[in-house]
Q: What sequence folds into this?
């Protein structure tokens, strides 16, 4: 004849085994996404400190914005500099232009190829032409490298999967303690 504690723990023990299966399956299914997300996340944390990931920000001659060349002229200078650097014809569409008054420079970031040109804000002299590897790593990190649909699916899968792992992991920690207490 089974003990009274054994009959009250049979259902929770079965549920605990099911949670262990779900936890293992979710972990295996999310393995690649978690690996890519964690490795790219670590690389992005270092992007300001490792030159190959993101070009170091140069220093211009003046932080006074009133003495700076206009944005349109900056865009033309940066486009010509990139064209010379790549020794190929354009056009090179600009994604964005950032003003860095504290450093005295314009940063011109291009849409294709992850290129950046840093231009002295006052003189218009090109200070740097370099590739921004951190940008493609960021696009890989969030899935947008493969398109907006992949980004939405991968990030939602990762988020829901992590919630599932958190829930099942908590139950795998708490459940056996509860079962042992019920058997006593």
A:
């Amino acid at each position: 004849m089974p003990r009274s504690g054994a009959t009250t723990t049979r259902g929770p023990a079965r549920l605990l085994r099911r949670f262990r299966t779900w936890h293992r399956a979710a972990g295996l299914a999310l393995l690649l996404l978690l690996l890519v997300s964690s490795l790219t996340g670590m690389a992005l944390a270092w992007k300001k400190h490792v030159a190959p990931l993101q070009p170091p920000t140069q220093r211009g001659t003046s932080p006074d914005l009133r003495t700076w060349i206009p944005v349109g002229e900056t865009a033309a200078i940066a486009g010509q500099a990139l064209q010379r650097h790549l020794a190929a014809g354009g056009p090179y569409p600009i994604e964005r232009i950032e003003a860095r008054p504290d450093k005295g420079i314009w940063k011109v970031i291009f849409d294709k190829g992850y290129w950046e040109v840093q231009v002295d804000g006052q003189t218009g002299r090109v200070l740097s032409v370099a590739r921004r590897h951190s940008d493609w790593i960021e696009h890989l990190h969030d899935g947008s490298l493969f398109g907006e649909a992949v980004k939405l699916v991968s990030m939602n899968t990762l988020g829901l999967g992590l919630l599932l792992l958190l829930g099942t992991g908590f139950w795998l920690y708490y459940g056996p303690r509860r079962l042992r207490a019920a058997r006593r």
Summary: The chain has a mean pLDDT of 90. Residues 4-45 form the longest helix (42 residues). Residues 83 and 90 are 7 Å apart (CA to CA). The chain has four helices and four strands.
